[in-house]
Write a structure and sequence with these properties.
alpha/beta
């Protein structure tokens, strides 16, 4: 059977065909035909005002932070249980990070802890839709509007997930997707920024196009383009976009395939959860997830480490996830934790991710299940 990897990047079979087409078009830089196809597909599918592919999910967050006009001394509220990219973008803009605790059921930011963390310096709330399960966005948006704050959704893991019928990434002022090789849909390295407030679209185009109004020029809106503001190069290569386009064409097939695997895990381990041996993911009412990952939470840190080692000995790669940012050297340097760390550290110490990817073989899936049951039944 061989080693069962934790992740295998998605590949549907038409990627090379489209990449060759991009080369034949003599247009392999940013905003080529495949980039535009991907942007339009994402806009239409998610009912988004404007979507623009970027070089990564991190650069999408960088753009969002700049568009929020964050200045040194401003504060951004976010969960500590997230990847460093979420924090880096706001640090780059000069913000102080204010971490708050997570909910143990979803591992998402605890919306009831946000308001207490707001100060006169707060500028942005950045919820992270962990594992493709939406945060409680109604409450978060209500808090943001009450305090005149902007909301940047880190929806890196949540492409195809929804909250009360609305696509994750399209609820806040800005949304950020990732198409990294570990995500449900991939172009190797890549991402997208979602602009949900039309007032920011033109500024976002200029920022993404090295500070020029080149996009307006190509639409025939101006006679020539010029350097008009600060910008950078966030355009994704059309070769990468061609790779992604192959997957967006069959997005529902990929989504359904992952959900089958996710549901198989859940049903297989439900008895263990009922006995209190492990904890399983929770999907709140009104949330539709995308099976981005499947995780379990063990009794404690030692049990998790023993489980990871046991699975490794049986040629199954399972991994723990984030070390909370507020306890990391950079987190201590650039931010602070507001309130009590009741769940962030303790739950992160218990969480372990199982192999989950498009096209995982049934025999491999069954082996992961069998070995997991064997370990916890010992």
């Amino acid at each position: 059977m061989g080693l069962i990897h934790f992740n295998v990047p998605p590949f549907v079979g038409t990627e090379f065909k489209y990449m060759q087409e991009a080369v034949n078009n003599h247009k392999i830089c940013g905003d080529g035909p495949f980039t535009k196809k991907c942007d339009e597909w994402l806009e239409k599918r998610f009912n988004a005002k404007k979507v623009m592919l970027t070089t990564s999910g991190s650069s999408a967050l960088d753009m969002a932070a700049i568009l929020c006009e964050i200045k040194p001394g401003d504060e951004v509220i976010l969960p500590s249980y997230t990847f460093s990219s979420t924090a880096n973008s706001f640090v780059l803009a000069g913000a102080t990070l204010v971490f708050v605790d997570i909910r143990p059921d979803t591992m998402n930011i605890d919306e009831t802890k946000i308001e207490d963390a707001i100060t006169e310096k707060t500028k942005v709330i950045c919820p992270v839709h962990y594992a493709g399960v939406a945060c409680e966005m109604d409450i978060i948006m209500e808090i943001a509007r009450k305090h005149n704050l902007l909301v940047v959704e880190d929806a890196a893991q949540a492409v195809m997930s929804t909250y009360k019928g609305q696509a994750c990434g399209t609820i806040g002022d800005f949304g950020c997707f990732s198409f990294h090789e570990t995500k449900n849909y991939s172009m190797g390295e890549g991402g997208a920024i979602v602009i949900n407030n039309e007032a920011y679209i033109e500024k976002a185009e200029i920022l993404r196009e090295k500070g020029t109004n080149r996009s307006q020029f190509f639409r025939g809106q101006i006679a020539k383009y010029n350097w008009v503001d600060f910008g950078d190069s966030y355009l994704q290569s059309d070769i990468n976009a061609a790779y992604l386009w192959a997957q967006l064409e069959v997005a529902d097939d990929i989504n359904n395939n992952r959900l089958v695997a996710w549901n198989a895990y859940y049903e297989a381990f439900k008895t263990l959860a009922d006995k209190g041996i492990i904890e399983l993911p929770t999907i709140p009412e009104g949330c539709i997830h995308n099976a981005h990952m499947f995780y379990i939470k063990c009794k404690d840190f030692d049990k998790r480490q023993a489980y990871i080692q046991f699975m490794k000995e049986n040629e199954v790669l399972c991994v723990f996830h984030y070390v909370p940012l507020h306890s990391a050297p950079a987190g201590l340097k650039f931010g602070r934790f507001n309130g009590i760390d009741k769940h962030t550290t303790s739950d992160s110490d218990r969480l372990v991710r199982l192999p989950m990817y498009y096209g995982i073989k049934k025999d491999d899936l069954q082996k992961v299940i069998d070995k997991t049951l064997e370990f916890f039944d010992k």
